[in-house]
Amino acid sequence: WDAQILRCVGVEDMHAVFNLPRGRMGRALAAMFALSMNEMGVWLIEQYQGSFLKMLDATHGRASSFVTMLGELPAFADIANYHGRDIPIFKRAQHASASLNVAFGRL
Q1: Residue 41 in contact with residue 4, Cβ under 8 Å?
Q2: Which three-class secondary structure state does DSSP give residue 106?
Q3: What is the mean pLDDT of residues 13-17?
Q4: Can you tell me the distance from the alpha carbon of 29 to that of 14, in angstroms, rounded to the nearest whole number?
Q5: pLDDT at position 107, please?
Q6: Which end of the chain is flanked by fewer CB atoms within 10 Å, N or C?
Q7: Which pLDDT value is given to residue 77?
Q8: How many whole angstroms separate alpha carbon 64 and alpha carbon 104?
Q9: Which of 40, 32, 31, 57 is nearest to 4 (CA)?
Q10: What is the C-alpha to C-alpha distance for residues 6 and 10, in angstroms, rounded to an integer?
């Protein structure tokens, strides 16, 4: 999917792609997936002219840059509170970086 499609996918698309159950929990998960995809699509369009490759090129091959970039998106900005301090974890972004590295050897 390209950025234009990502910004428009909906709950039903997520049900079809991930074969999610149709109950309340499946619908909630599909809605979270759709929101994340929409955010990613809009972000790619606004920041990188809709290009995944431009986004990856902007990391200069550094996984830490990729994680930081993805951390701009609410779906990837997982932050834990520890004794009143917000601590960025970025677990999802780290997984995305590792997955790209395994798939393409780019990061």
Answers
A1: yes
A2: coil
A3: 94
A4: 9
A5: 52
A6: N
A7: 86
A8: 17
A9: 40
A10: 9
Polymer length of the chain? 107
Q: Which residue is listed with tokens 């050897």? A: 105
Q: Residue 80 forms beta bridges with which residues?
A: 87
| Residue 40: CB atoms within 10 Å | 21
Whether the Cβ atoms of residue 90 and residue 77 lie closer than 8 Å to each other: yes
Neighbours of 61 (CB within 10 A): 10
Q: What angle do CA 21, 26, 27 make, to 5 degrees?
A: 120
- Report the SS3 class of residue 57: helix
What six digits make up the tokens of 34? 């759709």
Supply the pTM of this predicted model: 0.81
Q: Using alpha carbons, select from 41, 98, 39 the residue that is nearest to residue 64.
A: 98
Amino acid at 17: V
Token pair of 87 as six digits: 């601590």
CA atoms within 13 A on the CB side of 31: 7
The first and second tokens of residue 10, run together, are 């909906």
